[in-house]
Amino acid sequence: MINPSISLLCFFIFSFFLALSGEIYLTHLLPIIFLSLIKFRYFFEILKRLFFLNLFIILVALSVILSDNYHLALLIFIRSNLIILFGLLLFHKMDFYDMAFGISRLGLGSKISYLFYFCIRFIQIAKMDFYKFKRTLKARNFSHTTSIFAYQTYANLVAMLFLGAFEKSQILEKTMQIRGFNGKFYKLENSLKFGFYDILLIILLLISLIFKQGVLI
Amino acid sequence: MHISEGVLKPEIIIPSSVVAGVLVVYLLYRLNYKDIPKIACMSAIFFIASFIHVPLGPTSIHLILGGLVGAFLGVNALLAIFAGLLLQALFFGYGGISVLGVNLLMLALPSILGRYFVKLSLKECKYQKIYQPICWFLVGFISLLGSALILSGVLVLNGKEFYAIASVALASNLVLMMVEGIISLFAIGFIYKVNRGLLN
Asked: Is residue A170 part of a domain?
C-alpha cells in the first residue's frame, strides 16, 4: 500500500527524531493514527506483536523506576512504543522482495542493493532448509530436552545450514561470473508506484516533526 | 540481544551511528562483487538464527550465531550482521533504525574474534586435540561475552538509572554464552569433518 522506499525513509526520519527527542508531543501521533487507519484490519495483530516486544522496554523502565526517575521511565516507555508501533504499522505484511526493491531504489549503490536482494533470497532458502531439518527431527522422534545430545543435534543442524548456504553461494557466484554480471541491478520500473498515501504519510510526518503541539510528556 | 528503540541517549546514539556508518561504507567500498553471495548467505543464517530455539530447562533460548558468522567472514561479518539486523528491525521490530549503530557495533565487533579463534585452531602443534575444541568453543563464547559486555557498558554509560538493567543483561546472557559456545564447538567440529577447506 505504501511504497517501501518511502516507508524506509519515513521510518528512518521518525525513529531518529523521536529517539533524539526529550519530549513527546500529541502531533507525534498523527502518522501513527494515519497508518492505523490504513492497516485497521491488522491492528490487533500488530498490537499483540508490540506487546511481546515490550519485554526489554518494561525491564528498562523498571530499572529507571528503581532510581525514582519516573519521568524518564515514562518517556522511555512511550518513546519506544511509538517508534516500534510506527515501524510495525509500516512494514506489517510487506513482501521481502518489495523491501529489496525499496532498498535498491534509495540509491545507496549497487553493492548494497545486491547484498540485500541476495540476503532475502537466501533467507527464504535457509528458512525452507531449517523447517525441513525440523520436520526430519520430529519424524525421528527427537526429544527437545536440555542435554549434550540435544545441543549436538542442534549444532549439526546449524552446521548443515552453513554448509548448504556456502554451496548455494558458490553456485550463485559462478552463475554471476558466467552471465557476465557487472554490478547492475535490473528491475521493472513500474513495479513500485508512488501514490496518494505516500504523499499523505510524508506530509503528516513533516507536520508531526515540525509542529510540536500538545506536550504528552 | 538487541537494544530497543527509544532507550538510549543522543550522546550514545549519534556517535555509534556515525562510527557504524563509516565502517559499513568503508567495507562496502572495498568489497569485491564476488564476495557478496557469501556475505548474503551468512547474513541470512544470522537472520534465521533467531528462529532456532534451543532447549534450556523448562524454557528455550534462541541462538545468535554471531561468532560463527565472524569465523567464516572475518571483518566482512560486520556487513552480514548489518543486513541481518536491519531486516530483523524492519520485519520483526527487534532493535531498530536509530539503535542500529549500537546494535551493530555490539554484535559485530566481538564476532570478528571468531575468525581469530578458528585460525588459531588450525595451527599445527603437539596439543592440537585439546586446544582445537577449546578454540571452537571460544568462537561462540567470546563473541557473545564481548557483546554482553558492550551491551552492559552501553547501558551503564546511558546513566546511573540503568545500572540494574545492565547487571541483569550481563547475568542473563551468561547461560546463552555457554550454549553458544557448545553449539559453535559441535558445529565447527562437524564442518571440520565434512569440509575442512571452508575454515581456511
From this structure: yes
Number of domains in chain A: 2
Q: CB A177 to CB B34 under 8 A? A: yes
CA distance A128 to chain B (A): 10
Full residue range of the structural domain in which residue A140 is found: 109-179
- Number of cross-chain residue pairs from A and B with Cβ atoms under 8 Å apart: 230
**Number of domains making up chain B:** 1
Global pTM reads 0.93
pLDDT by 10s per residue, chain A, length 217: 788 899 999 999 999 999 998 889 899 999 999 999 998 898 889 999 999 888 888 988 998 898 888 899 999 999 999 999 999 999 988 888 888 888 888 888 888 988 998 899 899 988 998 899 989 988 998 888 888 898 999 999 999 999 998 888 888 888 877 888 766 666 665 556 778 899 999 999 999 989 887 777 7
Closest to B144 measured CA to CA, from B101, B180, B115: B180
b (16+ CB within 10 A) / e for B125-145: eeeeeeebeebbbbbbbbbbb
**Cα–Cα distance measured from residue A202 to residue A217, given in angstroms and rounded to the nearest whole number:** 24
